[in-house]
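Sample log: S-type anion channel SLAH1.
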Amino acid sequence: SGDLTESNKLSNQYTEMEILVVPCQEIQIKIDYPISRKKKRYTNLADAEPIVLMSVLSSLHAGYFRISLSLCSQALLWKTMVHLHSDLPSMAFHLLWYLALATHVSLCFLYAFKCIFFFDLVKEEFSHYIGVNYLYAPSISCLLLLQSAPLLEPHSVLYQTLFWLFAAPILTLDTKLYGQWFTTEKRFLSIMANPASQVSVIANLVAARGAAEMGWRECALCLFSLGMVHYLVIFVTLYQRLPGGNNFPTTLRPVFFLFFAAPATGSLAWNHISGTFDTVAKMLFFLSLFIFVSLVCRPTLLKKSIKRFNVAWWAYSFPITFLALDSVQYAEEVKHHVASALMFIFCSISVLIFLGVMLLTAANSKRLLRRDPVLWSATGPKTDKKSLSANANW
């Protein structure tokens, strides 16, 4: 019994010691300060930059290359005007060309990073009936930069090498896009055709103009025929109001200006192929002029698309610039006061619209980086209104 009492006393002492030790252990385990310090660490701007960059990359799509398209086409217009009218300041052309180069290179780098980190989104964009057309835009911008380059001659080896480097993606996409209209059973042109489909036509015609500048007449004729035949098919398909045109988001209605951009680009290409602004070039110019007037006379068509700023507004700029380039060539050929008046009107409209959209973009720069609804939700045209609203960012 004595041993039991002693053991009980010892156990009671050990229990009391454990009770005394436990609070010390709890105090040592509790580490509130390092955790709060860790939370503060992620609120620093330097640590938030990768998160912001990933957000920008995920929201970026090929439709943003409309910006570089407008800049590059405007640089080509200024080069043409400076070449024909020596009294215009050449410094403005050089500044505009380098601005276009910097903008296009920046967009290309961002899109290349998107291909690395968000390849699934790029694959969905490649499969989308609207998004796939704007994959031509980087090559078109590169070709326009090449054709408006201030210190590069068309007959140089560097010019020819860069031409093939920029034209190769266009031919690859032609094989994919035009080939599926012939061979696949689901992606019919009558279902997939939309106003953005004309970007592929513009790409072939810009490449034809570049080949003609180098003196490659047969190559230019090949690209010109490929572009104009498909423009005729797409134009007739959209003119008949088949299902593809009815699935086009309201926000993207500025892309309707591509209807006259394609024949205007074709007129420029044929002018360089034939060496003169002949009857074919004039017919294409008059066609683009008629379509432009038809669109301008229906302002209600674009009323809903201008309520809130969108990157699609850049689709107003480069079609007008191509039409202004046509008017310049037409005025040089005809030598008439009406042609000179058309040149002055369209060049003025082109510059004013370009400056206006650029200022609006600068004023709404935060909206461009915002995570808006994008096209990833669908890979083909649907009649559901919810799917169309998800497509509005293009």
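Observation: Residues 324 and 345 are 8 Å apart (CA to CA).
Observation: The longest helix spans residues 2-29.
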